[in-house]
Amino acid sequence: MFSRLAEWGREARMRPRETRTSLLERVVELGGATVAQLSNELEISDATVRRHLDRLEAEGLLQIEALRRGPGRPSYLYRATDAGVRTVRDHTPELAERLLSEMVRLQIEQSTISEALADQVADAHRSEVPSGSLEQRVDAVVDALRPEGILDHWQRTESELQLVNNACPYIGAANTSSCVCDADRLAIEKLLGVEVEQTERLATGDDGCVYIIPLEPISLDAEFKHAV
What we know:
Elements: H1 2-13, H2 16-30, H3 35-42, H4 46-58, E1 62-67, E2 75-80, H5 82-89, H6 92-105, H7 110-125, H8 134-145, E3 153-156, E4 160-165, H9 171-176, H10 179-192, E5 197-200, E6 209-214
Antiparallel strand pairs: 1-2, 3-4, 4-6, 5-6
């Protein structure tokens, strides 16, 4: 009875998200685990473990394999999906910063890097930006780039449109090289078809990244001139 009370106490102290994170981390470390294994290691009940594993499976972070060992009901092994592994062991940002730092050290032309990155972003989102007025296109570009963390919102002043981002998604890389900021600006230009100027940068200590477009912008491509 006392052991069960202690178990209830541990379960009460662990928040649901913390419990699921601990379970997912252990499944990744073990390469797969059963409910009994996880219950024993985390010292929480089978029912609690199973409930959290079901939630992780529903989120696409775990998959279940039936283990048949002779007659009777099979036991089940939980394995992390690729998404599950990335959730607890995604070191892509660190790798990106190292790669960028090495490019800078090797004196690879940074404008080439910026242009290539901008092309990738623009190609991925070009279909999301329909033709229309400049403000309509700006609205579409902000919506398209918001999930990538490049833009948050935009506003109009008496003389210009301001596109704003309040939290850099790769501040470490931006601190390593300005080509990251240049790539974002170029991607916005390519999607809008007009010149864009960046006036503030989080990487240099400003409160946000701010891109401005005059109300009478300079078109980059003849196909946009009718809409500017």
